[in-house]
Amino acid sequence: MAELIAAHARLFLLEQLRVPVGLLASALFPAISFVAFVVPFAGDDPRAATMAAASMIFFGAMAGALINLSITVAQDREQPWNPYLRTLPAGPLPRFSGRILATLAGTLVSVVPVLLLAMLLTEATTTLPRLLLGLGALLAGVVPFMLMGLLIGLVMAAKAAIAVSQVLFFPMAIVGGLLLPPRMLPGFVEVVSPYVPTRGVAELLWAITAGTTPDAVALVSLAGWTVVVAVAAAWAYRRDEGRRFS
Amino acid sequence: MTILTRAIEVSRRYGDVLALDRVSLDIRAGELVGLLGPNGAGKSTLINLFAGLRRPTSGVVELFGGSPQDPAVRRGIGVTPQETGLPEALRVGEIVDFVSAHFPDRADKGELLARFGLDDLVRRQVGGLSGGQRRRLAVALAFAGKPQLVFLDEPTTGLDVEARRSLWEGVRSFHRDGGTVLLTSHYLEEIEALAERVVVVGSGRVLADGTVRDVRDVVGVRRVSLVAPDLPELPGVVGSERVDGRVDLLTTDPDRLVVELVRSGTPFSGLEIRPTTLEEAFLALTSKEPSHG
Predict the structure, then answer these.
(1) How many CB pairs (< 8 A) connect A and B?
(2) Least Cα separation, residue B265 to chain A (angstroms)
(3) How confident is the model at residue A241 (pLDDT cuts 50, 70, 90)?
(4) Contact yes or no for A88 and B81 at CB 8 A
(5) What is the pLDDT of residue B283?
(6) Of the residues B69, B118, B119, B227, which has the maximum number of CB atoms within 10 A of its CB?
């Protein structure tokens, strides 16, 4: 099984590397936002800069997970290669896992530019163990958004998937406090914020890298969202099977 | 002989369209079966059911005595992807490695590619292959896992004559070594060249199942075209249409038809007798109840 998962992950990685636009976009997008919004406003405050760097790294990772994945999954479903893969002697697990591993690898690449910028241009600071733990939390925290991307990609055509994933992405990023710290959000947003899955991941990352106390409601709601989206993505996969006319 | 795969009273419906209508078919070990029929006859649906891509609406499909939905059962089969869907960015060798990784018993990559004339293209990206090369790669992939049974859906569509013949040779050598093949094609010539047994499907039913010779008789339909105001009842007519005073009759026995026509004393002019395309013959045949099979 491990060999099969590796074979599928390898295929996705090769495609990503040979057409690197997606990879480039998910690496540059958060870096540019970081330089424009974080460096001038929070660059001098170590704690604020650290938290903002963590938020921005997650912002980029989430874009890769949610937007890229939903589009590529929807596009792949429109290719005849996809039904062919279903005739190979493997269940859905290797392809599912392979796709998630390849996206995680892309996530790690997208982390590098913001990390370098935070070190060079701001007072952001953390320890090596906290950084590594933070990366671990980032990889785990991005999983529910990958499942969300899979779900959207599996139930929609590519064009609809592009629109829907972006419509979900920005409000979740803003309400979750990734672009502005929660205390700067309007009151009603702060009420909703803990129930948005992005906030849970952000809380986790802030706690690990900057030593804040995570909000329990946000963490519980993140766990709840993860279960719901995982079940929905599995349902969408099964439903997709045998749907296309041929 | 051992039955490798079978359909028992299988129907498959897509919305309002009945793609297969109570089809029963056995494929036995060592057979080379040609599946013939016009577009929309249900050929691809049948193959998709055998390969586990679709579930029947009713009836049972068995593969190696199990369910085609079970991945482990599918280790024994090979399927051809549509060449238009091969991932463009990947190299030929990478795709073969990837497909092979799914099977416990694997064909040697170099030998496999050589058999389909692709040995010097291992490092070529799919995006840089010609249509014919893609087609050959797609067919080669069906053999990557040393299958017992391969499904070749339109394997030579878009290939030139030479490439077609070399591909036929590849299929024959697989069959000589004991492999079982279920092949679909638009080309009667291809089925004649390869298959021992031919199954004709039309409108979701099996219309004929027999040797190539049996089936050639079934599809040996001619088009008799003439200008006539009114025609008497004529023998062997399986279909007719009238366009601008000209009548086209599809018949299995044009000689007898003409003899009867002359005997009846009906005035006519502009008599032509032409072979029909396979497609027309099937359409004519499927418009009436099957005579046998």
Answers:
(1) 73
(2) 50
(3) low
(4) no
(5) 61
(6) B118
CB-based contacts of A6, cutoff 8 Å, min separation 6:
A98
CATH 3.40.50.300 in chain B is located at 3-216
Q: Which H, E and C letters describe chain B, residue by residue? A: CCEEEEEEEEEEEECCEEEEEEEEEEEECCCEEEEECCCCCCHHHHHHHHCCCCCCCEEEEEECCECCCCCCHHHHEEECCCHHHCCCCCEHHHHHHHHHCCCCCCCCHHHHHHHCCCHHHCCCEHHHCCHHHHHHHHHHHHCCCCCCEEEEECCCCCCCHHHHHHHHHHHHHHHHCCCEEEEEECCHHHHHHHCCEEEEEECCEEEEEEEHHHHHHHHCCEEEEEECCCCCCCCCEEEEEEECCEEEEEECCHHHHHHHHHHCCCCCEEEEEEECCHHHHHHHHHCCCCCCC
User: For chain A, what are the domain ranges?
Assistant: 2-245
Q: A84, A96, A240, A244: which to substitute to probe chain B, counting the most B Cβ within 10 Å?
A: A84
Q: What is the ipTM of this complex?
A: 0.79
Asked if residue A195 has pLDDT above 90, the reply is: yes
DSSP A213: P
How confident is residue B214, by pLDDT bands cut at 50, 70 and 90?
confident
In the block, which residue shows the tokens 């803990």?
Answer: A194
Q: Are A27 and A112 in contact (CB under 8 A)?
A: yes
What is the residue whose two structure tokens read 């948005």? A196
pLDDT at A119 over 50: yes
| Matching CATH number, B3-216, of 3.40.50.2000, 3.40.50.150, 3.10.20.740, 3.40.50.300 | 3.40.50.300
Asked if the model's pLDDT at residue A133 lies above 60, the reply is yes
